[in-house]
Amino acid sequence: MSIRSFDPARRSLPFNEWPVIDQQLWTRAIAKRTLFGEGGTAAHWRPRTKVTNIQNYGRFLGYLAWSGQLDPHQTPAERATLDVVERYHEHTATIVSPVSQLSLLVGLKVTLKAMHPEINWRWLQEACNRLQIVASQEQSRRPDLPCPVELDRLARAELAEAREAFGEDEPSLKAAARFRDALCLALLVRRPLRATNFSTLRLGHELKPSNTGWNIMIAGEQTKNGAPIMMPFPIALNEALAFYLATVRPCFPHAATADRLWLCKFGVNRNHYWLHERICKVTQRLTGRPINPHQFRAMGATHLAEDAPDDEYAAANLLLHRHLSTTKRYYIRANTLRASRRIDALLNPPRKKAR
Prior knowledge:
The protein has helices at 20-29, 47-66, 76-79, 82-93, 98-115, 122-140, 148-168, 173-190, 195-199, 238-248, 273-287, 293-307, 316-319, 336-347, and strands spanning 207-209, 214-218, 229-232. By secondary structure, the protein is mainly alpha-helical. Helix 2 (47-66) packs across helix 5, helix 7 (148-168) runs antiparallel to helix 8 (173-190) and helix 8 runs antiparallel to helix 10.
């Protein structure tokens, strides 16, 4: 097995490599309230939020380590000066988009506020506000996304070709990866889950058998907004999923013992970003432009909004947003189950009866 190289300039320092003082302040910040204690300022954070902010703050520490500025004897507040954060921002501008820059900076801000609630972080909040404007402008300049109906057609055609190619020769990891990517693409069109939830689906946990096929059931502690997800696996993809589970997935290492739905050439890949890269590659090949998993959410909501323009909020539950203001540009009033069935109906118009 080959060892994957990783750019140290992009590395997020894992929690066990944080300076001791940072670990202590983080532990105090997330401490739960007890009978005689008030708890930390971040005690209310959901598990997923904690993981995300560990990664975001770890990215800042990783930058400091890479640039030779990490002093383990300093407190987080002593390290995160205006000049240092400005240089960190300039560094991230060379490797990520403004939207990702905003996520990293907001993660740094909320973590510093949790660790040092006694300090006024207004200057960092104002920096996040300015970057929010830049990120919004960047998003508005993005080219129009393809219609999900056309993307669904391409995905299902790719599934058929990948299945045919898989049976021509001895099964190979390359052929298995092609079918897996096509199935991922087809599923994302119909069930635009957030990338982390999508990449960590597990057999018997988030993906469970039902009378009609399979159900996707994700607990609230695993979602961004804390709301559980319950939706049927697309019936149109049941046959492809059955073929994947019985024939394709066993080609990957550790298939017999791992419960992850999506496996790679290493077996279970703990880096959630790997499927992001795979989806971008397959969409680049099929459409001529890379489409990341998050953009599938915008495509689905936009398509539903176009189908029912008078129903202003009809897509909020498809995207599983807690507040309607988040999806005001799309639409919704139906629940997750209704929204997922509706997009299936759009992608599978009824066949005309032969006369």
